[in-house]
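Recall the central idea of this unit: under ordinary conditions, the amino acid sequence of a chain determines the structure it adopts. In this exercise we apply that idea directly, starting from the sequence alone.
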Amino acid sequence: MAEPITAYVLIKTAVGKTDFALKDILDIPKVLKATIVTGDYDIVAELESNSVDDILGTVAQEIRQIRDVTETKTLIGTKLPSYSPRVNL
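Accordingly, the structure predicted from this sequence is:
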């Protein structure tokens, strides 16, 4: 069985509706966690699945369909090793 794929979805919401959107996002089974953030986006959600198509489907058919979600950007995790400046190479 393949290793699960992790994706991060950056989400913009309608003004004043972030809390409502967050509640609906957290109800989606493939969402591991989601949090309100500051900056250009209002929420960051972490998703996990066995396929990229499944993640993209969840974003299109579930997250983007939430009434107060106005924009999303999906970042798919890679299997390349992460860089950490604390590790001596």
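The first strand starts at residue 5 and ends at 13.
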